[in-house]
Amino acid sequence: MSSTMAITVATIWQEGLRAVTNKNKCNNTCSSTNLMKHWMRLCFQVDISGKVPVKVIARTFASGKTEKLVYQCLEELGLPSEKNDVIEKDAFTFEKFYKLYHKICPRNDIEELFQSITRGKSEFISLMAFIDFLNEKQRDPRLNEILYPLYNEKRAAEIIEAYETDKENQLHRRLSKDGFIRYLMSDDNAPVWLDRLDIYMDMDQPLSHYYINSSHNTYLSGRQFGGKSSVEMYRQTLLAGCRCVELDCWDGKGSDEEPIITHGKAMCTEILFKDAIIAIRDCAFVTSDYPVILSFENHCCKAQQHKLAKYCDEIFGDLLLKEPLPDFPLEPGQPLPPPSALKRKILIKNKRLKPEVEKIELELFRQGQFVIEDEEKEDADAPAAPPPEEKKEETPGEAPPGEVPPGEGGDAPPINYSGSTTNVHPWLSSMINYAQPVKFQSFEHASQKNVHHNMSSFSEAAGLNLLKTSAIEFVNYNKRQMSRIYPKGTRADSSNYMPQVFWNAGCQMVSLNYQTPDLPFQLNQGKFEYNGNCGYLLKPDFMRRPDKAFDPFAESPVDGVIAAQCQVQVIAGQFLSSNKVGTYVEVDMYGLPTDTIRKEFRTRLIPANGLNPIYNEEPFLFRKVVLPDLAVLRFGVYDENGKLLGQRILPLDGLQAGYRHISLRTEANFPMSLPMLFCNVELKIYVPDGLG
């Protein structure tokens, strides 16, 4: 095979695999599909003769049932059942595995629901009883009946035909318990509206009208102080759906003077800027076609800034947006372009020279007459001076940081953050357009200037300070231009702050440490999974319109938004742990301060059963959700020692009511094949007490 053909074949494989691995819906398969995936995995774990060992199958159920019970159930299904037996792959069909699963883990939780629908008088659910169940229990009563019609005989009969395996039951249009379980575990009963997993939002609004999935110090794979830098972090972060990555650029010391990326003055390892740019080019538009913003923290001398510009120009090529779009000139009062107009484009965020200075210096540079005067180089490895809290010069002063909560930064001293250089090379300066960082002075000053392509960065502490003093002004600022929030310098352990408080203010780039899979990271990834995981989420209407005022700390309903009530009953779990441990479930809500409820709702502990615990708790009531559009539910499953076993973030906008199986994720938000919760979710319009 020639090298050209080999490259072509490799490209076909790469594109084919990426189409599967980066397809958002692949991370949201239903419970029955997950069971099938696990069965396929078992079928691959064959011995040397190509047969499936019985003991491999038994391990699936070890966290709650004895091996003896598994062997007994295998025998009842007519399969080899001794510990050292093996099963022919052809004999171990999915239907056999599915029956084995129900023998070992009988769904008594669904049996109770089945009996309540039939009122204990029948072995089948009639068509009319099923229609009543679908409309009364499985449907959000807030939905418009024209856009989302009630279930009728035709739709209910289609569901019965799809999931009822008994032909006679199909003929009589009735549902057995087995058919009912298959329906409850199917895509037709997903916990979220599946169309929310595709791109469904309006992508023609100005950039400032979107939340943008953003990363802080993207190159670090560990701590902020003494940590390791890695090119791979850019690949993984972009593939995870991030659209704004950070590059801290410093002068390279070698004889070739290649610019490097590192966390300056923090004893971190370094990577070559060029290598990072290649990785960004290769992965920028695999998960999403919408624009990527490179947030440069530029400490390089002009000679090495020339290399920054050269590599961006040569490696990115046409992907780099070097000129403003004709329809969106860089003028005061002109709105930012929409994501749809910037598809497959890379934007650079870096300081820009004054227009008149840039014009003269760029002309000299193009004529080969631009002279770089001797500069004092900033050393990335120089010992840190007594550090300020702020990182970048475009942030305002802030209140002195108070005591750091446990698990939020430890006792390490704050990192010394020095500002980016203002001595910018004209070629690099000419590549900056819609993300021009400026020193923040005040909201009033920004409003008077009305320059939409100017943006500022704030540490979390500075951002909180502004929220406390000028919340409504902050929201209005974010309607017009972009803001970026980053973790404060005391977070040397790369912990994250809660992003929700800044989303509530409409901040677009709420940048987090992607290498730390903590609760804030989980909230971020769960939220951005919607809209095709494209990295852009349209903010609510009242956070975009200049004629609307919004106070993120208000407790009364927002003008034009109907408050909701949410009730969650955790009924049971399946395959929650591979060990025979006790488990419990916490259900929290995050949103506006008035909507946020944490650590209040928790099931009882079910001891020594990680396989199929039944909680059957009283429902947890979130009585009044002022702003459902910004609220998310979080399910956290823990073992008896408080270790997280699985979690799931579900935005209320798109959550489906009714009895649903909720597949769980790891702490890093990767899908888990078998672990799931069976819950009943009730959603309705909030009605004040006494007005029901």
From TrEMBL:
Catalytic function, reaction form: a 1,2-diacyl-sn-glycero-3-phospho-(1D-myo-inositol-4,5-bisphosphate) + H2O = 1D-myo-inositol 1,4,5-trisphosphate + a 1,2-diacyl-sn-glycerol + H(+)
Keyword Lipid metabolism carried by entry: yes
Residues in C2 domain copies: 544-672
Pfam families the record matches: C2 (PF00168), PI-PLC-X (PF00388), PI-PLC-Y (PF00387), PLCB1-4-like_EFh (PF22631)
Domain PI-PLC Y-box: residue ranges: 428-544
Domain of life: Eukaryota
GO terms of biological process kind: adult locomotory behavior; entrainment of circadian clock by photoperiod; lipid catabolic process; phosphatidylinositol metabolic process; phosphatidylinositol-mediated signaling; release of sequestered calcium ion into cytosol
Residue span of region Disordered: 375-420
UniProt xrefs under SUPFAM superfamilies: C2 domain (Calcium/lipid-binding domain, CaLB), EF-hand, PLC-like phosphodiesterases
GO molecular function, a single term: phosphatidylinositol-4,5-bisphosphate phospholipase C activity
Protein's name in the database: Phosphoinositide phospholipase C
Organism of provenance: Artemia franciscana
